[in-house]
Every structure is written in C-alpha cells, then in structure tokens.
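Job type: complex structure
Entries:
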Amino acid sequence: MTSLIKNNKHIALIFFSMAVLFFAELKISAQDILLSQKNYADSLFDESKYFDAITEYKRLLFFDETNQFEFDANFKIGMSYKLGAKYSNSIKYLRLAQRAAEANEETFKSKIEIVKVNILRKTFSAGKLLLNQIEKDERFTDRTDEINYWRGWLRMLSDDWEGASESFAAIDSLHPLKTLSDNVVDEKYSVTFAKVISYILPGSGQFYSGKYLSGLMSLGWNIFAGYLTVNSFLEDRVFDGIIIGNLLWLRFYNGNIQNAEKFALEKNINISNKALRYLKNNYEGKKP
Amino acid sequence: MINNFVQCRIFFNSKFFFYHLLILLLFQNFGFAQSTNLFSPNNRFKFGNYLFQERDYLRAIDEYKSYLSTNKNDTLNFKIGFAYSRMGNYSESERYFKKLIGKSIFIDESKFELLKINYLRENFSDLRSKSFPSNKFRTETLKLQHYSYLSDEIELPDSNLLFSIYNDDELIFVRDFYNRKLNPEYKSKTFAAILSAFIPGAGKIYAGETGDGITALILTGLFSFLAYDNFQADHKIRAWIFTGLSAFFYAGNIYGSAAAAQIYNAGIKLNLENEIQVFINQKKYFTPRYDFID
C-alpha cells in the first residue's frame, strides 16, 4: 500500500513537471511565433510590399490575443495604406493605433501621421484641427517645433504661403522652408491690385501679369467701344449710346477686369506649383 | 478495495502507462503546433472569416483559397463567389457559384446569386428568363425579377403582376417608381418649340428655365424694336444688323427651348433611375439572409 502511494507520488510529480514544462513552452513559443510574424510583416513593409504587409499585420493582430502588438500593427497598416495612397483606410488604422498607444511618444507619432495623411488627401481643415489639439495637449509642449513644421507644410499645400512662412519662422528664422515660402509670397501677383488697375486703365491688369498682347487687345477694344458709346451720345443718339454702352463697352470693360483676375490667379498657381515641384523632387527634409 | 489498489499499481507500473503518457504528450505537442502555426489551414480559415467579416474580401479570398488547397468546403467556395460579386468581379463570382450548382447544399443560394449577377450586369432579360424550381428563395427571386422591369428599357408589365409580390413597405416605393416610369412627367420638345415660336422665351419657361426664358424674351424684343426703330429712322444697315440679330435670337430660342425640354426629360429619367438603383441597393437586391455568412 505504502509503495503504491509512493509510486503515485512519483508519477504525479513527473506528470506535473511535464505539464509545467509544456505550458511554459507553449507560452514562450506563442510569443516567439507572434514576434516572428511581426518581423515577417516588417520585412514585407520594408520591401514596399504594402498589400502583403497589411495582410500579415492583420494576421498578427488577429492572433495577438494579448494585444501586445496592437499599436505597432495598426500603425504599420495605417502607414502601408498611406504609402499605397489609400488615405481613408490609412486614417482608420492610424486612429486605431492612436487608441492603442500606451506611451506619449506613440500617441504623438500616430496623431502626426494622421495630420500628414490629411495633408496628402487635402483635407486641410481636419489636419489643422488636429494640429491645434496636439498643440494644446500638455503632454506635447516640448514638441512645438515638430507641430509648427507640419503646420507649415499644411499651409504650403493649402496655398497659404504667408502662414507657412510664419510657422517655419517659429522654428527658425533661417529655416529653408521659410525662405522658400517667402520667395513664393514675393513672386506672387496681387490679384486685387491687378483688378484695381484694370478698373482705372483697361488692359493694365494684364500688363501687370505679363500678358502684354491680351492687355493691348483689351485696351483697344475698350477704346473702340468707348468711342462708339461716347460718339452716340454726342450725336444725340441716346438710345444707341445706352445699348452700345451696355452691350458692347460694358462687356469689354468687365471682360478686362475678369481677365486681369484670371491671369493673376493663373500666374500665382504656376508659382505655387513650381515651389511644390521643388518640394516634391528636390527638398531633402521630412515630407508628409 | 484492495483489488482496486493492486490493479492501479499494476497499471501505473506497467510500460503501457508510460507509452500512453508519451503518446498523449506527442499529441499535445502536435495540437500545439497546429494552434501556433499561424499559416496552418485551420488558422487561415479562421483568419479568412475575420477578414470576410471586415469586408476585406480580397484578402479573405486569398486565405480561403489557401485553405481550399488542402481541404474541401462548399461554404468557403460560396463565400469566395460572394466576395468576388461584392468586389464587382462577376466572371470569377459566376465561376464559383456555377461550381456549386449540382453538387452542394448551396444550390439555391448559388442560383439566386447568379440571378443577382444578371441584375448587376444589367442582363435583365436573362434574369427574367430563368425559372426557379425551388421554393426556398421564390419570393426573393420574384421580387428581383419583377423589379428588373423598372430598371429595364422595355414596356412595363401589368401593375397587378408587378405589385403582387412586394410587402407594404416595399410597395410604396415600387408603386411610385412604376407610376413615374409609366407616366413620366416629360415636357414635349415640340410644344416647347411652338411656344417659343409664338412668344420668345415661353418654351424655356415651360421647360423650367424661367430666367433664360425671360432673358430670351427681353433680348429678342429689344433687338426687334431696334430693327423696327432703325427702319423707321431710315438707318438701313443698322436696321438689317438688328434684324439679323433678332432673327438669330428668335431661331436660337426656338431650338434652345426644344433642347431645354430634352434636358429636362433626361433629368427626370436620370433621377428616377438613380432612385430605383438606390432603393435596390438599400434592399441589398432582395438577397435572403445567409446564416452561414454572418
């Protein structure tokens, strides 16, 4: 009887030890497997295979029961969608990453990425709102330069070059993007000025925008229509004068002002586009 | 009692026990390997289901296909067909549904999905020509087939036939679409042109372009008056110029009125087509609820 109990004890001990070993192995192996899955997904991401990377990060999320990779996986899915130009999906996953963030750095990182995606998809008001929220957040008081940098980018891409210059000046008065923004502001034509001088002297707005032939044509037509109108009144053909004045002269006069505005706007768009092309192709700093 | 202890002792001391334990642990390890291999067929199956629920159909299809390379599963074949259909890849979708007809439990579901593809491809006559022998989705099928008359360009059938199958909520919309399709509130191009011939601009006003109509009336009237006035004053050249202008505006307005009526009619037709499409989208093409998909 004693021997039987003794034997049972040994068996129970062996069984217990094996069970402990088994479950320990299970836990360690599960960790290893998830980690290797993350590494695999990361390698796909690094190779720019974004579709596959998203699949593998989603697989990681699905099998990660303890949610230890929730931030990393969601963030990388968001980044993959961003790099694949699927901006709405990108924001969805970056928001999930933001929710899963534990450290302040992670929260900041995901929020800034959301701002960058908003810049890329041209939803500037949403980006601006989020930047204001980040700026007011006490956790990120030491990240003002970064906030100003992305605010500057947001303003540049929303064609607010003066605002962009202010934002970059808040980082450094000699910041290269401040210089670029200032140059754009200096190069741009004043649309209001072009219109005002066209009111005073038809065609001058076009001259100001560098459209000399158009300016001359506009001036010529206005002189001709003006002559016809005035001549009608001088010859006491009041009705003719009113009709010619309204249907001919006023049409050329208005057309001259609209043209002045249109040409100034076109020139400004070209100047902005030239600066944006430089940012896209030649600028080596951080980009959205 | 003593007998039991003796039996126990024999069991624990026997080689059988240790072999048993060894086999048990081996199986446990095998099971563990299955559960921890994220790319095992079972895990691909589970992950595929998750992706399908997330409506990430393209990835779900990949997972299901991988599972099906080692296993057979008609539900997954159906879900692949369904996913392709949702993605707008109708030829692949058809291929999967056709595979299921005749040799699976999803015959009726597959047939219904094939009908739905006919609707989505606007093959309305094909859709209506298919008979549906099973009673399982008879109502849904008839609803879809009858509704296709509203999207088609052919003559509408008798309203009693069309309305009989829908419930009260659906009937409100179907009846409205039917009536609007049968008697569209079109404007007559000829009438618009004739109106403008009598009173310049009236045709435009009739076609809903009130502002343009009034402008046309004023301009034609003004140029006609100028022409008349210049003829009276013996300024013949100017008189003929204004006569030409007024004739140009007059003729242009007649043509413009007919065009405005045509644009108005196109708008009415387009609006109705949009509403018909929005309604059937909301009703999910009268698709029955598939429990195995939810």
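Summary: The mean pLDDT of chain B is 87. Residues 236-282 of chain B form the longest helix (47 residues).
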